[in-house]
């Protein structure tokens, strides 16, 4: 019988990448996933690689929130460093591109908010270049004339979310990890100095567990008596038919919620965190009114997309926290159980979070400069 040193629960980017880094370090690890690998947020997301403070909460939650959130900037920058060499490391194309992130404004008030946000970001070490109307047009001639300026974060980019967690899983298996997908939901129990993980297909015992179950992580920590402020929100994204190369950047609006980018295949992904609905069975479904608003903002920002057909819109639960900070580390009161939970931008933060958690599980400090103490799980 195989004796695992670590069991990872959850097969999204958080779990697959954690299994990879553990296996690469020579740790015997098994990942259990209730359904197919990367079936939820890790494939359904918009593929943006962010480092800047998200504009919507910056506007709505205020300067104190932004100062607190800015602690996460070095963490996302460390993750982007990993993304830069990830294709070489995993030996596969992930459609990663670093065209830069462009936050654009249409009014003087929006430009003032952009400048205020850039000041906080620069103080945290993030490169942000303010652009007037002329330089905005030089960088991004595809943008509407109604936009009067913006800020460029040159290190931001995009990747294809459907490729990434499966690539981590393949590399984890190649390094010796066991992956048990379609296992049904795992239940956790503490028993005589170790933990048991029971699924429909197996029973595992280990003294170290990593919970990487996205928005379902709260139920698992709760089963060990630890309540954390993890949340789930239904949001939606859309994609157009392919077009000739047009949008080079990851575009954000400082007005209403909007993000846009062009994929390698040429289609335009349109999102920004618009809410979806939840149906009677508890499944996320597209809210058509919000879709219409999202599309009309996209068309106002980049008029040339007006002639494109929309191919698909979809909805999924994104994992959140009140303060938007990651929760990474050992659970209070459950020694040996680690949580890998990056809210809202868990695709971007996935590689750094997984690398950090794999180190913590082995009793080592994470090999990147980020304030992990601020991210420690605290019972709520
Ligand atoms: C529409 C949308 C757009 C987004 N856009 C972006 C973006 O552009 N950029 C960005 O950085 N982030 C984005 N995000 C956020 C990002 O996708 C998530 O933060 C990230 O994917 C979370 O990864 P995860 O592995 O923690 O969770 P998930 O991908 O949700 O994976 C958790 C896994 O755990 C499994 N699981 C749960 N409970 C159990 C159990 N008891 N037993 C076994 N398995 C279990 C689930 O089946 C699932 O496969 C977006 C999210 C959404 C929904």
From TrEMBL:
Keyword Oxidoreductase: yes
A Pfam family recorded for this sequence: DAO
Residue ranges of every copy of the FAD dependent oxidoreductase domain listed in the record: 6-359
Record keywords: Oxidoreductase
Highest taxon in the source lineage: Bacteria
Entry keyword Oxidoreductase: yes
Protein's UniProt name: FAD-binding oxidoreductase
Species annotation: Sphingomonas olei
